[in-house]
Amino acid sequence: MKIYSVTEVLGKYFDWSKIPDQILAQACSRGSIVHSACAARALGGYVGRVPELYSGYLHSFDQWFEANVVETVLCEHRITCNALCFTGRLDFVFRLYSGELALVDIKTPAALGGSWGCQLAAYDYLLKLEGITVDCMLSLRLKLRGGAALGQRYEGNRANHLNVFKSALNAHRNLMP
């Protein structure tokens, strides 16, 4: 059976047709560059040259990271669930100064995404397959101009978010040609 990615499954529930191809390509490029730079920073490695256009996002991440993170536990980690035939590449698991173990997914859009809770719940499910239980899940929206990142916690409704993801996965698996 084919293995589907979390983002492939949930991507069907966003109307990409309203975004011009050039803007969408820029957003994909931005996401890749920002994710790579943040991963390097979280691992204490060399970040390299970040295009000026995206440097604010990295500054936004740096501020949040310095204020909140004790330790990077996992970074850009892929996990596959063969039983349910899906895979995901989560951004980070951090140990926070609060003592919490946090699953963190960085985002560059200004607005909250409707599927982000489901995405994090799917990653949380995958982490449990590896024996890792996180205390909290959050999307971290980085700011273009380097301002304070906005963390959105997804608490109390993990089971609902996971059920929605599993429903989307089942529909995707059974309705795709």
Radius of gyration: 16 Å
Strand residues, percent: 15-25%
- Calculate the terminal CA-CA distance, rounded to whole Å: 13 Å
Major sheet description: 6 strands, mixed
Report the CATH C-level class: Alpha Beta
Total individual domains: 1
> Could you estimate the helical fraction of the residues in percent?
40-55%
Low-confidence stretches: none
| CATH architecture descriptor | Alpha-Beta Complex
- In CATH, the topology is named Lambda Exonuclease, Chain A
User: How many helices in DSSP terms?
Assistant: 5
Write down the overall geometry: globular
SSE sequence, one letter per element: EHHHEEEHEEH
Global mean pLDDT:
89
- SSE-based structural type: alpha/beta
Primary descriptors:
177 residues, alpha/beta, Lambda Exonuclease, Chain A, six-stranded mixed sheet
Q: Can you walk me through this structure?
A:
With 177 residues, the chain is of the alpha/beta class. It has one domain: Lambda Exonuclease, Chain A (Alpha-Beta Complex). It contains five helices and six strands. It has helices spanning 6-10, 21-42, 52-68, 116-129, 158-175, and strands at residues 4-5, 69-81, 86-96, 101-107, 136-141, 150-153. Strands 1, 2, 3, 4, 5 and 6 form a six-stranded mixed beta sheet that branches. A hairpin with a 4-residue loop joins strand 2 and strand 3. Helix 2 crosses helix 3 (52-68). The longest helix has 22 residues, at 21-42. The protein is globular, with a radius of gyration of 16 Å.
